[in-house]
Amino acid sequence: MSRERAVAPRSVAKGRIARVLESPWRATWALIERVLYQGHLYTWLVPYGVRVLTPWNHPADRTAFGHAYRVAREGGPMLVSGDRCFMLHQFALRAATLPGDMAECGVFTGGTAHLIAETLGAAGTGATLHLFDSFAGMPTWAEPSRDAFAPGDFADTSAAMVRARLRPYRGVRFHVGFVPDTFAELDGNARFSFVHADMDLYPSTRAICEWFWPRMVPGGVIVFDDYGFWPLRHAAKAAIDDFFAEQATVPIVLPTGQAVALK
Ligand SMILES: C[S@@+](CC[C@H](N)C(=O)[O-])C[C@H]1O[C@@H](n2cnc3c(N)ncnc32)[C@H](O)[C@@H]1O
């Protein structure tokens, strides 16, 4: 008790100092919110003026995510932001407890494929991870005015390079070529617990929805990248909205820019 009484005045003083120091920050955030954020549907994503859990910013993070994220980033290029990788890891881990295969559509140089493969390896699941990409860039039907990308964008990769990156992982199958043609390489009776859809374009995203959604196991999840990104509002977002308007499921939209459809 006496010790508590002795430190109490100092704690009170520290609290007052913290409040005084905090107040300019709060005023700044309030101003930023008023000027840049209020009244806008699409805004730059920044923190909220209070500290929140962001393990992707902590290089020594010793959690399962910290390890998988470090391995994937050290293995080659990583295009996708840390907050989205964190959500991907959460959903892949959850799906690893379900029956069924897994897939990524939109691999490019293999950043998120590496994260998923490492996550599944650590979880000890025997699921096959199917990877779909042309590995030669966006298809001829990419329309810059709708999709924000042109044919041939993302050509700076190769299947050989990504195969080498993912060589340590078992159960990874490559489907090189254009979706939806390459879906014919899958067993039509296959079932899936997890799909990462990251092909950006309207036709590619729509084809992913149509092929995978009926084949998801109960509890399975499709994580869509690009849903909330303003340049892709007529591309990935429109394809997802159009497809799920005719389904009994409403995708959950995340503030990371992703959307998630749970079967
Ligand atoms: C944004 S990148 C994927 C990024 C990747 N997830 C990463 O971690 O780097 C989109 C990829 O989808 C591919 N793509 C888009 N539509 C496709 C289609 N219909 N068939 C095959 N590949 C396609 C592009 O060539 C590109 O490599």
Task: Please name the defining characteristics of this protein.
disordered N terminus, alpha/beta, 2 domains, binds S-adenosylmethionine, 7-stranded mixed sheet, 8 helices
Helix-strand layout with pairing:
Layout: H1 2-37, H2 64-74, H3 82-95, E1 101-105, H4 111-123, E2 129-133, H5 144-147, H6 159-165, E3 172-176, E4 192-197, H7 202-212, E5 216-224, H8 236-244, E6 252-253, E7 259-262
The structure holds S-adenosylmethionine (SAM).
Residues 79-80, 106-109, 111-112, 133-134, 137-139, 154, 178-179, 198-201, 204 line the site of S-adenosylmethionine.
Write up this protein.
With 263 residues, this protein is an alpha/beta fold. The protein has 2 domains: 1-52, no CATH class; 56-262, Vaccinia Virus protein VP39 (Rossmann fold), CATH 3.40.50. The chain has 8 helices and 7 strands. The chain has helices at residues 2-37, 64-74, 82-95, 111-123, 144-147, 159-165, 202-212, 236-244; strands spanning 101-105, 129-133, 172-176, 192-197, 216-224, 252-253, 259-262. A 7-stranded mixed beta sheet has the order 3-2-1-4-5-7-6, with helices on both faces. Helix 2 packs across helix 4, helix 3 (82-95) packs parallel to helix 4 (111-123) and helix 7 runs parallel beside helix 8. The protein starts with a helix and ends with a strand. Mean pLDDT is 92; it is low at 1-5. It binds S-adenosylmethionine. The site of S-adenosylmethionine has 21 residues, from helix 4.
